[in-house]
Every structure is written in C-alpha cells, then in structure tokens.
Design brief:
26% strand, 31% helix, globular, alpha+beta
C-alpha cells in the first residue's frame, strides 16, 4: 500500500472541518428524558459498541419487537441477552471495560438516538422477567448506566438509501451468508449446505 497522508492532531482536524454549531454542542443530555424514552419504545434494533481493556473494539446488533429495551429510570436501561452463538464478545468486553456506546434505530426514520455510558451484566430475575417473550425470560441482561444521550442526524441514511426499497439490490445478487461462513469456518463437515440448513433451523426455532 502506498504511503498515506494522515491527520495527526485534534487541532488539524478542527482546522479542516470547523467547529460544531451551538445546537450540536448543546444537544447532549445526561439522562433518559421523555423524548429518549419514546424513541427507545419505538426502536426494534440497536447496535452495541464495546471494547476490552486494551481498546480492541466490537460492535454487536441487538434486536427484538419495538420497545424490547427496558428503561428502569432516567439513568438506567437494560438490554435483554437473547440466545445466540455463545461467543459473548460484548459481555467479555464489558467485564474488562464497562464503557459502551448504543445506537438506536427505528425503521424508516433517518435520525438515530445515541447513548453512551457504563455497562454491567445482571442476572436479576425480577428485572429480566419484564423482558419475557413467549414465556421465556432472558438469562442475562446488559444494564447501562446512561451518561450521554443525543440525536444523530439522518444524512447517512439519506446517502445510503437504507430505508428506500427501490435502492435495494435483488436478493439473488446479495452475498451468500452460508457460503461466507463455510469459507471462514473452514471445517470439512461444515459445508455451505449444512450451514444454510443450520441458519434456517436457528431462525425458526432458537430465537428465544
């Protein structure tokens, strides 16, 4: 790769991009107010960003029916941990570095809600029962002590056309998840066909 020209300081970055407006500076609040609660209640999907004590980062999608995140009070919310692949990367990270970032999305809406704070893993049955689905409560939850809440504009969604079906590719032309997994796993018994069937089975019977 050729030698690249880097930005190496905050001062240089500010000179190139300028400073945020007063609206941009003042929009950050330190609690889950009624507007944030309403946004969370309508959101069926979020991205959870974590890192370990060395700064190695990870982003994990979390989703369920709208309002799946339980708001305890103005400063605390809980994300239910539904059955997955048992890697628990996010939770391992939280145990070594509690700082997290959340990005809440609402389908069809360009603006998103960003929340930053400190997380912990809880196993409190009384709290987790509030997030029960089909008679099954999550075994664990990610409790977030909220430090910052703010809205993010919808320019990325406008540019990408994420919510515009006319800009979506035909399903047949999309990358094949089973094929990719088979190549990455690289085990003789884990064929593309087997992984495809496992995915279908998991989506059908192992969501909760």
């Amino acid at each position: 790769m050729k030698t690249l020209d880097y930005v190496n300081s905050q001062e240089e970055l500010r000179l190139m991009l300028g400073t945020p407006s007063l609206r941009g500076q003042n929009k950050v609040i330190s609690k889950i107010d009624e507007h944030c609660k309403d946004f969370i209640a309508h959101s069926p999907f979020l991205i959870l960003a974590t890192s370990d004590h060395e700064g190695n980062c990870d982003s994990s999608p979390r989703g369920d029916a709208a309002g799946f995140v339980h708001v305890i009070d103005d400063h605390h919310l809980v994300i239910p941990d539904r059955p997955g692949n048992k890697r628990v990367d996010s939770m391992f990270n939280i145990l070594s570095n509690p700082k997290v970032g959340l990005l809440f999305l609402i389908p069809g809406m360009g603006e998103t809600l960003r929340i930053n704070g400190k997380a912990a893993i809880i196993k409190d049955e009384e709290v987790l029962k509030k997030m029960e689905v089909g008679g099954k409560a999550p075994l664990l939850g990610i409790l977030v002590n909220v430090e910052q809440c703010f809205m993010h504009c919808g320019k990325a969604f406008k540019r990408s056309g994420l919510w515009e079906p006319v800009r979506w590719e035909m399903k047949e032309s999309l990358p094949n998840a089973a094929k990719i997994l088979a190549a990455h796993v690289n085990l003789p018994e884990m064929t593309e066909e087997r992984i495809a069937n496992d995915l279908i089975e998991g989506y059908k019977n192992k969501l909760y």
